[in-house]
Amino acid sequence: MKPAAAREAEQRDVAFARPKPRYGRIACWIIVLCVAADAGWLIAENPNFEWSVVGKWFTEASVLKGLQVTLGLTLVSMILGTLLGLLLAVARLSDNVLLSGLSRLYIWFFRGTPLLVQLIFWYNMSTLFPHVTLSIPFGGPNVASWNTNDLITPLTAAIAGLALNEAAYMAEIIRAGLQSVDSGQFETTQAFGMSRARALRRIIIPQAMRAIIPPTGNQLISMIKATSLVSVIAMGDLLYSVQSIYNRTFEVIPMLMVAVIWYLLITSVLNVGQSAIERYYSRGVRRSASAARRRWPSVPLVNRLLLHKEEL
User: Fold this and answer.
1) Residue 307 pLDDT class (50, 70, 90 cuts)
2) Burial (CB count within 10 angstroms: exposed 0-12, middle 13-18, buried 19+), residue 25
3) What residue ranges define each of the domains in the chain, with the CATH number in brackets?
């Protein structure tokens, strides 16, 4: 048995320090878990949700077809919006006053008007311009002409509205990411004789991805939910499909639950993918932390900080 002096010395040594039990946090966890379990039980046992109907229609052909339309719209609109947003971000950061001004004007307009209004305008474009004409300006001859209704279908209206709106938000996200990179990086690329486009592609954008990925993931999840707005222009997405079914069967709540569950499943998968991409672009920071832990593997945290302070 250790003498009292030795036990007292161990108690004062930070190497033997232990955190105090956090009974308040444990109590909060118990309360939250109890409330969540009770809420889940009430939902599961509530007959008004008609879970048997939900299971019946969950994998129905028309619902799955609407799901495919939702995913396709999200993919195409997000790709187009990101590419256009990158161009807008580079233009806004440009020294060219005209390009910067046009980029600011675009972002101001599309961020300042509701997405639903933009979709309705695109769908009803034929009321403003019955024909789309390619001609020489100021009264010149027409080169080609198309009927607007043939060009602006529900699909093209949905893609145009979603992609152009998304580009305005992605432009600000990418601009913030590019500005997060140290300006000395760009000066270094100029010293090596790299062009601006190559510097952005090889040096600046890879470093900015760590700041761009998290908000881009949020925008992708928002895009999944924003596709539900295309149901107002008769586009057969997931929400439109379940609406068509409950308009016939009058089973409103269970069909809405079908859409809710599918949206939750999609966003959950996207959250996992976003986390994986974030870990990939944060691997340099994790290596630094791992190196620090390997450097002082058995030294307590308080002593590590003291040693690091002495080295500095």
Assistant:
1) very low
2) exposed
3) 69-237 (1.10.3720.10)
